[in-house]
Amino acid sequence: MLSSLSRAPRALSLPRHVTAVGPRLPHARHNHNVTRDPMTGEFTSLPDIEVSRLQVIRSENPNSPPAASSLVFGHTFTDHMLSIPWSAASGWGAPQIKPYGPLVLDPSATVFHYAQELFEGLKAYRDANGKITLFRPDMNMKRMNNTAQRIALPTFNGDAVIELIKQLIRIDKHWIPDKEGYSLYIRPTFIGTQAALGIAPPSEALLFVICSPVGPYYPQGFKPVALYGTTEFSRAAPGGIGAYKLGANYAPGVMVQKEAAKKGYIQNLWLHGPDHHITEVGTMNAFAVFKHDGGVIELVTPPLDGMILPGVTRDSVLALARDHASGKAIIKGMPGGKLVVNERAVTMKEVKEAAAKGQLAEFFGTGTAAVISPVDRIGYLGEDLHIPVGPDGMGPVSRPIWKHLVGIQTGKIEHPWSVVVE
Known about the structure:
It is built from seven helices and 20 strands. By secondary structure, the chain is α+β, with helices and mostly antiparallel strands.
């Protein structure tokens, strides 16, 4: 039995509470030759996602958004969701915005048995003038398509999905808290829904999007975290799936995080190989700031070598820092001296030696939820490395970058990364 969300709704004889958005002509031309066959990777002639086919079913029992102060991350959801079915026989079906509700899937659905599932995370912001924006959604769609191809799910027109997400946000825009530091977290998800056992590309799949109003990750101000350098377990391996946003990458980390908590640390620091190369901070990208002779400050993060997730915030931090270093776009508050930005391998030996010499200026993680998460302590091989932070919990480089980045996200600083919803 397939999910009721995965059936393409009829184009004619719509109920009175269903609205067809955009022209839907009897012989409308479908967008062909865009999707890839999940088995061969070759382009197909099947229809891609089309915004003009969108149907909207509004909730007859909408909820009232809760008080912003009561929000817990990821526990509250808006009234509507977006769903788009796909089948190997007919390609992408009609998108539908419908009341938020459970999925109905067969117990043999491939998502349950073979982890054919991926997801994304991005946010919508409301600025002081009420304008709603998304932050770099094209990056999320690019990563989502790359991940889909990696696990033999079909690819899709990312621009169309962005437009459909905008439609969803417009319907549920009153769920975006009108309060500084708050936003609407958006979770696109893509799953295999074919009812069959056997490891193979699914013949049916479902892309859906849900939204959750969220508050600031650090409501009482930045609180640096303590990391446990994990040497017993590895997050990813060369040639594996570390660079893809798959649910299968996250579940194995829960037990490791629990073990770190038992030892008195908030999160784990993923290390790899005999030299203990730094890869990621929990579920975030890792950054370090080193002080070198001659007043040189180096901002460094591990390279995208196939084991590192290409984070949107990671890319944004690097781009802003490089623009500052080149003089193209100065970031207010950055420390004096020459800034050098590098993507290179970093080992715990280098971090330990720099900390001992007073040359480790800061260490932090980056991600959509927290944006920047400062670190003040790393447990490694039985001892703690202490990392300096300022009175506000942040460091000299991450602080101004965070302010600048949040300024772009919230519309205080004009930038092409900010995409207007309405």
